[in-house]
Design goal:
Blueprint (H helix, E strand, L loop, with lengths): L5 E3 L2 E3 L5 E2 L2 E2 L4 E2 L4 E2 L3 H18 L4 H30 L3 H24 L6 E3 L13 E7 L3 E4 L13 H9 L3 E4 L5 H17 L7 E4 L5 H8 L5 E5 L2 H12 L7 E4 L5 E4 L1 H20 L11 E5 L2 H14 L10 H15 L5 E5 L12 E6 H5 L12 E7 L2 H10 L3 E7 L2 H6 L1 H8 L2 E6 L38 E7 L20 E3 L2 E3 L4
Parallel strand pairs: 7-22, 9-10, 9-12, 10-11, 12-13, 14-15, 14-19, 15-18, 17-18, 19-20
Antiparallel strand pairs: 1-2, 3-6, 4-5, 7-8, 8-21, 16-17, 22-23
Bound molecules: NADP nicotinamide-adenine-dinucleotide phosphate.
NADP nicotinamide-adenine-dinucleotide phosphate binds next to helix 6 and helix 7.
Length: 527
């Protein structure tokens, strides 16, 4: 049941007087529930509880944490129709998408549960002592990953489940041993509260410490700012716009004790289409890309917002085919009036730049909060020298850049900001011939797709969802898949500690049976 209150640990609380509602973009009306923004005192209470919870939770066994994570997944499933209906009413997204995203959220929680139950993720490393080594004895050193402390999570508007309250960041942080405080996204506060209630129930059922999780409502930036500045918070996970992520990153860096902000932000996801591939597959590529650009009304961080090709008949034909295909697609609803306003404004800014041509624009009437898809084209030289055209237009929009030649194509790729993904559309021989282009692209992105589309992010260990700035604030980490846990831990070494006093992971007997690096060799053997 939605109450509109904050979860401060296990308790519901609404001491403030600033309230707000969520919005149903399909019906173009406000939803009924009223949410109360967290007060400064409630924020401090949540962090204080998290600090206390950390003292014990950090020592919980992998098996205990796995039970907690699996119970969160069960409790989310138990929310059943109420969750799906709330999700749809707060986003305008269809039921199928809500269920799909719920499945992804459950899958993430269960895969982290498996990881932590098995235990090798701590990357234990042991170098045994050599007391009689000359000229100095070698100490007994044992290293493993340990959790950072309380983590604040900011979710994105476009993924109310998988990248929000119990999304990847929260699941990874809880797995690592960090309490989590979620700064709830104002656009899906109801979905957020329901998921928070599932986490709190799971925490109570499985005996987790009070304050292991809190969920704070807010309709502006103040709550998030106070959280990031709080001395008790030790790391931040953010999914959203470049502006928001950068503001929080700067805030965290200005603290007396700077802390890491792992922000996954916007991207235009360049797609390079090479001539032979365009010659062989022009129409099918146009169809595929019309769908990818408009998928989810273009509201994906991996939306293909930039298509790069070398000028010629094949590229001209592709632009024509893409234009024909994209206007056949029925426009759909965006998440919120603010997002559609931002889309219209950013698109307007892009299409009014000099020497840019609009080649496709859905021109029939559309309902309120529905987005018209648009494709533009521009010469390579113009794109190269106009940074406005490099910015994300969040929605069903893409620009096709017609480069003079392969050199200019490479120059453009080199000048792009960091991106989540890059895509190469090529025949195999072409990919070899254009190896400099491939290498330039690899240098700018976190994931390179071959003859596919960037939309769709598989959750699995080999996925990298991140990339050079501004795709993310730290390209060394992924936000998706089990390895995202590495953002919430630090390496820690014990020197010359008695075996009995070491954590299980580092004991001679290897009671957990995990894989460790012992004197330079990977093994699960005892010492
Ligand atoms: P957003 O406007 O940046 O909001 C995200 C969250 O951050 C909200 O809770 C927002 O709070 C908060 N926030 C924003 N600016 C802040 C500031 N200066 N100080 C404190 N808090 C701040 O992003 P969105 O509109 O929800 O999401 C759309 C964007 O996310 C797109 O650019 C998309 O590409 C990107 N995205 C990226 C990924 C990825 O994995 N890389 C995934 C999905 C989406 P308020 O709303 O209360 O201000």
């Amino acid at each position: 049941m939605i109450t509109g209150k904050n979860y401060i640990g296990n308790n519901l609380s609404s001491r403030g007087n600033k309230t707000y509602k969520t919005f149903n973009p399909l019906l173009n009306i406000e939803n009924e529930h009223i949410y109360t923004e967290a007060t400064s005192e409630e924020i401090n209470n949540a962090v204080d509880l998290a600090i206390e919870a950390f003292k014990t939770y950090r020592t919980y066994s992998g098996k205990q944490k796995a039970v907690f994570l699996n119970t969160i997944a069960d409790e989310i499933l138990d929310l059943d129709d109420e969750l799906i209906k709330t999700y749809c009413s707060e986003t305008g997204l269809p039921e199928g998408r809500a269920k799909g995203e719920r499945g992804r959220t459950i899958g993430q929680l269960r895969s982290f549960a498996e990881l932590v139950a098995e235990g090798s993720w701590v990357e234990a490393s042991i170098d045994t002592a050599i007391p009689d080594r000359e000229p100095a004895p070698k100490p007994n050193l044992r290293k493993m990953s340990i959790p950072l402390g309380p983590v604040v999570v900011f979710g994105a508007s476009n993924f109310p489940l998988a990248y929000s309250t119990a999304g990847g960041d929260t699941a990874a942080a809880l797995t690592a041993g960090c309490p989590v405080i979620v700064k709830s996204h104002p656009m899906h506060a109801g979905t957020g509260e329901l998921v928070a209630s599932a986490i709190v129930k799971a925490a109570q059922k499985t005996g987790m410490p009070k304050g292991i999780f809190s969920n704070l409502n807010s309709s502006g930036i103040e709550v998030g700012e106070q959280l990031v500045k709080h001395h008790g918070v030790k790391a931040v996970g953010f999914t959203g716009s470049i502006r928001g992520g950068r503001a929080l990153y700067d805030l965290a860096a200005q603290r007396d004790e700077p802390i890491p902000v792992f922000a996954e932000m916007g991207s235009i996801n360049p797609v390079v289409m090479l001539p032979e591939a365009l010659q062989n597959r022009n129409e099918s590529l146009a169809k595929t890309y019309a769908s990818s650009i408009t998928l989810g009304t273009g509201q994906f961080c991996t939306n293909p917002g930039l298509i790069l090709g070398i000028k010629g008949e094949e590229l001209s034909a592709f632009i024509q085919n893409l234009s024909n295909e994209i206007v056949k697609i029925e426009p759909s609803c965006m998440l919120h009036p603010n997002i559609i306003d931002a889309y219209e404004n950013n698109k307007q800014k892009a299409i009014t730049q000099q020497n840019i041509s609009v080649v496709a624009d859905y021109d029939s009437d559309v309902k309120t909060n529905y987005a018209r898809q648009t494709v533009t084209t521009v010469k390579g030289e113009i794109f190269l020298n106009n940074p406005t055209l490099h910015q994300e237009v969040f929605g069903p929009y893409s620009i096709v850049v017609q480069c003079e030649d392969a050199n200019q194509l490479e120059q453009i790729i080199t000048k792009l900001e960091g991106q989540l993904t890059g895509t190469l559309i090529a025949e195999n021989e072409e990919a070899l011939k254009y190896s400099k282009i491939v290498s330039a692209l690899q240098n700018r992105v976190g994931r390179l797709i071959y003859n596919g589309v960037p939309t769709g992010v598989e959750v699995c260990p080999s996925m990298t969802h991140g990339g050079p700035y501004p795709a993310s604030t730290d390209s060394r980490f992924t936000a998706v898949g089990i390895h995202s846990i590495k953002r919430w831990v630090r390496p820690f070494s014990f020197q010359d500690w008695p075996n009995a006093l070491l954590p299980e992971e580092l004991k001679n007997e290897n009671p957990l049976g995990i894989i460790r690096l012992v004197n330079g060799k990977q093994t699960s053997e005892k010492i």
